[in-house]
Amino acid sequence: MSVFRRLGRIIFESPGSAELSLAQWHALKRQVPLMYAMLLANMIILAATHFSSAPKYLTVLVPVVFTLLCGARILRWARGDGTTITPGQARRDIKAMVVMGPVIAVGFAGWALSLYPYGDALQQSHIAFFMAVTTIGCMFCLLNVRKAAVAIGACVLIPFTVFFILTGQPVFVAIALNMVLVTATLTTILLDNYRDFTGLVASRQEMALKQEETQHLLDENHRLAWLDSLTGVPNRRSFQKELARALDEAKAKGRTIAVARLNLDRFKAVNEIFGQIAGDRVLIEIAQRIDVNRPFSSFLARLDSDNFAVILTENSTGPNLERLGQRLCDAIARPIKLPSGTAHVTASMGVAASGPEDTPETLFDHADYAGLLAKRDARGGTMVFSAIDAHDLRQIRRMEHLLHTADLDEEIYIVLQPQFDIAIGETTGFEVLARWRSPVLGEVSPAEFIPMAERLGQIGRITQIVLRKALAISEKLPRRMRLSVNLSANDIGSPAAIDAVIAQVEAAPRPSRVDFEITETAIMRDLDQAREALSRLLSLGARIALDDFGTGHSSLTHVQRLPLHRIKIDRSFVAEVTSDPTSRAIVKTMVDLCRNLGMSCVFEGIETEAQLEALAGLGGTVMQGYLFGRPMMPEMALAHAEKSDAGWRPERNQRFGAAS
Ligand code: C2E
Ligand code: CA
Ligand code: CA
User: Fold this and answer.
1) Which terminus of the chain has a lower count of CB atoms within 10 Å, N or C?
2) Which secondary-structure segment (H or E) carries 516?
3) Ligand 1 pocket, 446 CB below 6 A?
4) For this structure, is 206 an active site residue?
5) Where are the CATH 3.30.70.270 domain residues in the chain?
6) Residue 568: nearest ligand to its CA?
């Protein structure tokens, strides 16, 4: 009973997975035509052995009908190569096979048995043999679709056994029993085989899935490694690889390529005003605009935050580069709509064409330098790297190399510039300024080597040397005088640099009389870090001055919230105070501002008496400039300090109400 139930379950089981259906279909496609061919051949042979004894409709007509039917099935399965078959179609074909197979089997069995009455014992044995062998052959051909195999087996075996047992002939009864045993054995083997087959398909499917997963991971890795996750354009790594490849190719073909460097102007402000998420949107939009406007053959990458680069492999000559630069800068400058407003962003672009000697590094360096020049001299526009730039850049690189290898302890020295308080008519202190005397280059201006040292990461060492030399001098100065040492934005931004400054000041005899000057840039880079650094410096008893006030972008709120003692008004305002009413008005506002905030106010770069008079008239008191003394060697400064009112004539002091 349970055997029948099992067979029934097999026959009515639902179709397997898509992969199994496809695999079965492909097996059927190979085996079904063979099966029908075998069936037809056996049928013709059986019809032939009964041709003379049985009626013609049985030996000719029925075989012709079967031949047409089986021929149609053979054609049906043989057509096409099966590459485009879908799981749905495969299932439909298998279902048709499962239905058609038993129907045809019953037809053949009925036909064969209907010949029985017309033959002698030998012919009847042929019928039994035909049915047994053909059934076994068909089941074998349908090995991979057990439903069809079992159905056919059952459809033939049952009438076969019943029929031959009923004949009462011992030989036929024996044949029927043989047939039952063989079919049962065959079915067992078939079911085992089918299990292996489905297992194989399942493991193949699992393997394909794993392969797909691995491919997906590989793709994802590739994306992470080579594409910028925010904008989706290639990243710095891709850029470097592509630049090396494009340059090699260009050299081999005797052609040139160009590299364009785009840096957004004041992108930080966009982040501050609209927030980080909007800032990201802006970057995505900019990447798209560059992408749309760049030449088709070029290569775009985002190098980092607001830095993009384009490699141009065609039309890389001067005028073309300028035109392209203009097009890209114009596209970027179009307003960008954001949920919380409209952002206006511009980009400065530097572009350089390759020369025969260029390496990827030098070419990029040239574009980078042109980008810096664009930032400085053509904000929002393009600069093409020229022969003059190449000369300048060589000088800079040489200087960088010399600075890098310099014996800084030996070569850096300090000069002191007096700061004079006209209210009391005395020099109250000196600003400490660094100088570099290179054995190769001679005297180098700090305006050149300080930014260079910041770039090269050497400013910390220079600060240390300047501070050490300043502390040594401060001990020799009259007690009422203080020294003011400049700190770079990099110093303020680095807790380690501040630690080193504090360690030096603490190691010097106390109380120290060293103050510090910091720039707006230092504060704006990281407000929290700046506040932390300032409070640590204050704990030394140092005073803090905000340098170059008016030239940066610090907001009043920031200035107000920081523990500052003085503000140094930049030279540019002083230079125009006598000629420009606006500058005068600004200076007046600054003086009032300092007074309101309880800070002192120092004017820088006073060169003429007219400037001094104008500033004094506006309420300024502490003055620094060539009029009061140029930066001088420490020995001179000490002598100057002895007569603290030197550099200024007493009668003038009296005019401004100071004691002489
Ligand atoms: P700064 O801190 O604004 O220094 C004032 C600059 O103005 C000095 O130039 C000084 O010589 C110059 N100066 C002073 N009075 C006058 C004047 O009446 N007319 C004119 N035309 N210029 C005047 P210097 O020494 O060339 O320094 C340039 C800049 O280099 C400094 O500007 C400062 O930013 C930086 N620097 C100098 N020494 C150091 C240092 O030890 N550390 C750091 N971090 N930066 C330094
Ligand atoms: Ca300064
Ligand atoms: Ca200054």
Assistant:
1) N
2) strand 514-519
3) yes
4) no
5) 236-385
6) 3
